[in-house]
Amino acid sequence: MDPMDPNAPIPPSPQTPPQYAPPVAAYVTPAPQPPYLAAPPPAPNGGGPQNKKPRVWLWVVIGGGAFFAFLLAVFLLIYFSVKSDNNSADFSGFGEKIAVVDIEGVIIEPRTVVKQLKKYGDDDSVKAIILHMDTPGGGVAASQEIYTEVKRIREEKKKRVVTSIETVGASGGYYIASASDKIFANPGSVVGSIGVIAEWFNYEELVKWAKLKPIIFKTGEFKDTGTPTRELTPREKEYLQGLINDMYGQFMTAVSEGRKMKLDEVKALADGRVWTGKQGKELKLIDEVGDFQACVADTAKSVGIRGEPTLVHPEPQRRTLADVLFGDISQFLPAKGGLLETHVGFYYLWK
Q1: Catalytic residue numbers?
Q2: Is the Cβ–Cβ distance between 60 and 272 less than 8 Å?
Q3: 3-class secondary structure per residue, the chain
């Protein structure tokens, strides 16, 4: 067959291959989810915000309990801090006791020592009190406060008070010791210094240099005696010396009565000098040369305690968290008024 013949039949066209029809996807069961990814089961009764109420109440109870525990802890802290000073020595031992009161450093305020002495003076289980002393003295009135309490305990409570001088028992310290029944001192201790001192600074020249002019209004000639902005007048010097002489006489009288010495004997020693404990024994300023343990043994024997006595010490004063939170912290803060204190101070103090 001639392919060019127009009468030739047209050959059939090749069949188009059938198109690919995607298979119908079969239903696939989803894989099970892990428990922590699985949807939570529906809440009973349809669920809703009301189911959160029990959890809120739980937190309220926990928070309230924690707050109550905090308040209870603060209360107990304050309670035991206050009671510690009162009950520190009451259960320190059994049997008859000897109380030991420390007098250390410069004597500025007498309240702490006087409070301790009064407590032990009123305690019938305490048979004697030892003043464990290491002080150069201090303020005149402060020393006299402690001296007076020692005498009161001896005379009213009929309780024995003994002094044990460790390193220094001078001036105001010796003034206090003279009121006790007996004085012990180490051979190398420093004792004595019977006398009074008053001192302050005069910065008149500094004021002039700074071109400052002090202005004072007063009533009476001696109202501003001792002001540091000018020199003392002769009459002011006489006035202050009279005060010092009177305090000096009080000191000598106390030593004379306490040590059972004539006033002239005391006056011969009352020129401000100090002596060793060994010298003090020879001068009748102390009774025995010995250390603290010798003092304890002698005191126990003198009040009829057999064997080793129970020594009672005051609880050291500690500052607690309650003191910081609720107490007076002004002592830790600088005070401008302290910089302006220029009054004359009188001291039974060994310098």
Answers
A1: 171, 223
A2: no
A3: CCCCCCCCCCCCCCCCCCCCCCCCCCCCCCCCCCCCCCCCCCCHHHCCHHHHHHHHHHHHHHHHHHHHHHHHHHHHHHHHHHHHHHHCCCCCCCCCEEEEEEEECCECCCHHHHHHHHHHHHCCCEEEEEEEEEECEEEHHHHHHHHHHHHHHHHHCCCEEEEEEEEEEECHHHHHHCCCCEEEECCCCEEECCCCEECCCCCHHHHHHCCCCCCCCCCCCCCCCCCCCCCCCHHHHHHHHHHHHHHHHHHHHHHHHHHCCCHHHHHHHCCCCEEEHHHHHHCCCCCEECCHHHHHHHHHHHCCCCCCCEEECCCCCCCCHHHHHHCCCHHHCCCHHHHCCCCCCEEEECC
Is residue 295 exposed (0-12), middle (13-18) or buried (19+ Cβ within 10 Å)?
buried
* Spans of all domains in the chain: 84-316+344-349
Angle at which helix 234-259 crosses helix 140-156, to 10 degrees, equals 20
pLDDT digits (tens, 9 = 90+) for 171-222: 999 999 999 999 999 999 999 999 999 988 888 899 899 999 989 999 999 9
Which residue in the block uniquely carries the two structure tokens 């090749």?
A: 14
Global model pTM greater than 0.90 = no
Which tens digit of pLDDT belongs to each residue from 34-62? 555 555 555 555 545 555 556 677 777 77
Beta bridge partners of 139: 347
Query: What amino acid is encoded at 231 in this protein?
Result: E
Written as one letter, the residue type at 297 is A
CATH number of this structure's domain 84-316+344-349, picked from the four choices 3.40.120.10, 3.20.20.140, 3.40.190.10, 3.90.226.10: 3.90.226.10
The 3-class secondary structure across 184-250, one letter per residue, is: EECCCCEEECCCCEECCCCCHHHHHHCCCCCCCCCCCCCCCCCCCCCCCCHHHHHHHHHHHHHHHHH
